[in-house]
Amino acid sequence: MDPTRLLFQEPSLYTVKAIFILDNDGRRLLAKYYDDTFPSTKEQKTFERSVFNKTHKTDSEIAFLEGLTIVYKSSIDLFFYVVGSSQENELMLMTVLTCLFDSLNHMLRKNVEKRSLLDNLDGAFLVVDEIVDGGVILESDPQQVIQKVNFRVDDSPLSEQSVAQVFLSRLILSA
Questions:
Q1: Potential cystine with 52: which of 1, 16, 26, 84 (Cβ 3.0-4.6 Å)?
Q2: Is residue 127 classed as helix, strand or coil in its secondary structure?
Q3: Within-domain flag for 7
């Protein structure tokens, strides 16, 4: 391989390899992988366990493992992770992590803990899907994410709304 090719890599929109949330025992609660770095669930969970073992007792916000850049944050009994390649900009990954955390914080009404997340897991997946699609960062503003997912402090959670209510609220917003 030509060494200058490594120095002048084309910029890519595909910046996120994975997003996952683990509980304080390192068990998966939510995970989305965007490429085939870890093709099987077994390999993904092994990677998650390695990441958790390396990060759960530290106060830093970034780790490097298996040639990947990992930014993370903990809250009460949850650990939030965003994974990118070794060449990825850590600030960009941190922006995704912050957007994820702030969006979930708003959705869960400032009660970001395991029980609350599990009760609203469908909404949490919607939040992740609004932020990143196929590894491409779509949104980094938590207010925009919340608006798109249709969660507001005064609204009932999406799981408690009927399909007609969601459709009607979308029509009103687009009018």
A1: 26
A2: helix
A3: no
- How many other C-beta atoms are found inside a 10 Å radius of the C-beta of residue 28? 15
Q: Measuring CA to CA, which residue among 84, 43, 37 is closest to residue 64?
A: 84
On the question of pLDDT at 33 being above 90, the answer is yes
What is the distance of C-alpha 48 from the center of its chain? Answer: 14
Give CA separation, 52 vs 13, 62, 79, 122, in Å: 27, 12, 8, 24
Q: What are phi and psi of 76, to 5 degrees?
A: 50, -95
Q: Which domain holds residue 56?
A: 12-174
| DSSP structural state of residue 160 | G
Asked if residue 154 has pLDDT above 50, the reply is no
Q: 3 in a domain, yes or no? A: no
Q: In terms of pLDDT, which residue wins out, 11 or 56?
A: 56
CATH number, domain with residue 143: 3.30.450.60
Strand 136-137 and strand 78-85: pairing? unpaired
CB atoms closer than 10 angstroms to residue 26: 16
Using alpha carbons, select from 105, 128, 131 the residue that is nearest to residue 117: 105
114-128 burial, b if ≥16 CB within 10 A, otherwise e?
bebbeebeebbebbb
Residue 156 predicted with pLDDT over 70:
no
